[in-house]
Amino acid sequence: MNKLTLYNTLARKKETFVPLKKGSVGMYCCGPTVYNYAHVGNLRSYIFEDVLRRVLEFNKFKVKHVTNITDVGHLTSDADVGEDKMLKGAKREKKTVWQIAEFYTKAFKDDIIKLNIKNPNTWSKATDHIKEQITLIQILEKKGFTYQAGGNVYFDTSSVKDYGKLAKLDLKADTKERVEEDKNKKNKHDFVLWFTKSKFQDQGMKWKSPYGTGYPGWHIECSAMSMKYLGKQFDIHCGGIDHIPVHHTNEIVQSESATGKKPWVKYWLHNEFLVLRKGEKMAKSGDNFITLQTLEEKEFHPLDYRYFCLGTHYRKPLMFSWDALESAQNARTRLFDRVLEIKSTGGKVLPKYGKKFIQEINNDLNTPNALAIVWDLFKDKKLKSNDMYTTLLLFDRVLGLGLKNITKDKIPQNVTKLAKERLNARQDKDWKNSDKLRDEINKLGYDIEDSAEGYTIKKK
Ligand code: AMP
Ligand code: ZN
Q: What are residue 87's phi and psi, to 5 degrees?
């Protein structure tokens, strides 16, 4: 098998992937801040991470995948200024921050299922890990990396030599921050580890700490939770490119200062943005916000969006337009129809195509070229249907388009969603929930048959 190469932001080049421990991979992904629906830009990030995980598994690595849920501490600017995002959501909807967090976490997990994104092995919620975050702050304090000012605890970036190495920050450059600076900071890049006397009088989430009652800064959660589940050093950390200069930079300095072990993470992978006309980034705070629900209301299938994302390399900006999405929809529907035509048993994987496919996906996840190989297969008139079908199912372990589960009957989306939820429940060995979901599927007039690879839905 070809070696797997991945573009490492830390090195600014493609590198051969060699895990810290033979055969297994620890992978941490920065998850959503649950104060609103995820927009399709955010979802591009999770599709990229899902493909990465699938490629690692295709290469026979055992992957431990952790994704966090940020439900506290994230301000509208990543650099500790602006409004508290959770509070902003609560005010907008006249609910408590806890209700907001619960509602949008559920909405996010629903999107993940619809996009055929594999559930992480661990979902880690920031508010469930306050103790771990305080312990980490205490370690940093003992080692002399922190100071207290205005009631808050800050990380002192002047206490380390290599701050900003991931982003190659020019620390002397005068950043033209549009927002007001925090007067308590000793150095421009210092950041908050624990807030107490913050400007948010009505902050709903507060915990006792040695520094006073308050709540953690945003960055500390990812250091604390990733190290809890993956160890002091691990293989891969992902997120969108916006995380490079602040969030991931701060995560690195906290973690390496606390443990003294470098590098904290061996490979850093970042996806480019989903952009609108003139390169404008899709953002939750903007008025250009499109959700998966919006796509479904316009009669797109969530997998049309997955196909759309696969068509552009994750390190290239992806321009969103309804026309482009419609082309992806046409291609995805055509693919499903063709797969149904060749559906058969007893085939073998076609070595020539299998080899080409691995070459592409192992070349820094080249999904556009991998999709092109799928279409080349259909153009090759010499191939037998059953071999084509078997080969495509193998490819789909990476593409994640659910080719195994296509049936002639048009299965309603609510039924497929329940079936996917049930598959997740079965994978988690939650048999009670799995039986409950089967009953719901039956009530809607469908039967579900399990197989080693997944399931098949049939009309009763
Ligand atoms: P957030 O919920 O804002 O913390 O973001 C969740 C993930 O989405 C992060 O990895 C971000 O880097 C990523 N992200 C945010 N905006 C975009 C965008 N327009 N395109 C692609 N990824 C994005
Ligand atoms: Zn993070």
A: -65, -35
Question: Strand pairing partners for 62?
Answer: 24
| Ligand 1 centroid, distance to 168 Cα (angstroms) | 21
pLDDT score, position 96: 84
Q: What is the CATH number of domain 20-271?
A: 3.40.50.620
pTM: 0.89
Nearest CA to 90 out of 255, 200, 246, 217 is that of 200
Ligand in closest contact with the CA of 254: 2
Beta pairing, strands 62-69 & 122-125? parallel
- Domain positions in the chain are 20-271, 275-405, 413-459
By alpha-carbon position, which residue is closest to atom 14 of ligand 1?
42
In Å, how far are 78, 355, 377, 399, 403 from 373, measured between CA atoms?
40, 10, 6, 12, 15
Homologous superfamily (CATH) of 275-405 is Isoleucyl-tRNA Synthetase; Domain 1 (1.10.730.10)
160-169 long-range Cβ contacts below 8 angstroms, 24+ apart: 160/253, 160/256, 160/257, 163/189, 163/249, 163/253, 164/189, 164/245, 164/249, 165/10, 165/252, 166/9, 166/10, 166/244, 166/248, 166/249, 166/252, 166/268, 167/244, 167/245, 167/248, 167/249, 169/245, 169/249
Average confidence (pLDDT) over 277-292 = 80
Domains 20-271 and 275-405 share a fold: no
Is the Cβ atom of 240 under 6 angstroms away from ligand 1? yes
CA of 432 from ligand 1 middle (Å) equals: 35
Give the range among 45-59, 84-98, 182-196, 222-236 with minimum mean pLDDT. 84-98
Q: Cis check for the bond before 263: say yes or no (omega within 30 of 0).
A: yes
